Amino acid sequence: MRLQTKMPKKSTSACSPKVAAQYASFARELCLEAGALLKRAYYRPRKIAHKGPIDLVTSADLASEKLIVRKIRDKFPEHSILAEEREEIANDSEIRWVIDPLDGTTNFAHGYPAFCVSIGVQCQDVSVAGAVYDPLRDELFSAIANRGAWLGRKKIQISATKKLSNALCATGFPYDVHNTQKDNLANFRRIIKRARGIRRGGSAALDLSYVACGRFDFYWEMKLAPWDTAAATLIATEAGAKVTDFSGKPFSIEKKEVAAGVPAIHKTALALIK
Ligand code: IPD
Ligand code: CA
Ligand code: CA
Question: Which of 228, 233, 257 to mutate to test the pocket of ligand 1 (most atoms within 8 A of CB)?
């Protein structure tokens, strides 16, 4: 059963399925190009700066973002753009591109091979297209609202796992973990006592894409930003995952909490998360 993606309120030509498919194709193209840039940078000495005590930014985050934003502005100068490392470009447009130029910066900075580029497209604040690219594995995930999700050219679907006890789960921890009680550790403890296992992959967009292709059965995280979730929550939804906030209400990218998983497991797992 595939869950229906929410549609933009007004059906304007900018939001039509045909145009969404064109945005998805451009998002894939940009991900491949920015991903190639990240891959080259990964094998060279890395320049790292701090945004917070454990929140890093590298020269590759900035170079990837510069490339993506320039190409979107060249092709769609009227569109809005929200990208992690720069000020928002807020134009009077129905379309907004939401970009994480390097999701998994801590991994990248330490030479741990798990990171990606994530590009989501929204029409009237509803996700209509998205792409996530892992350049080291050469895996390109993408989705178009109500048309499905793909890994490369192959359609993907969530796993057939039915019970939390058979589930491989994933999560992450927020950058303020040193200084807050809201640190996700109690959730981690409750889930690990019931599931087959938990991974902390270090890239929210890949975690969600892995739910989409059945590698993970359930993923949750708190204190995320729109660029972490814009593309990959659509990919997970289109692959059949249930994607909500922690209270079980439908997810939207302004929400900081996400719980995504196989519908049969989602309810049981969500009851353990606060
Ligand atoms: C981070 C990653 C990580 C998640 C953090 C995110 P960044 O994004 O997705 O897995 O746990 O909450 O902020 O900083 O690498 O783009
Ligand atoms: Ca991110
Ligand atoms: Ca990032």
Answer: 228
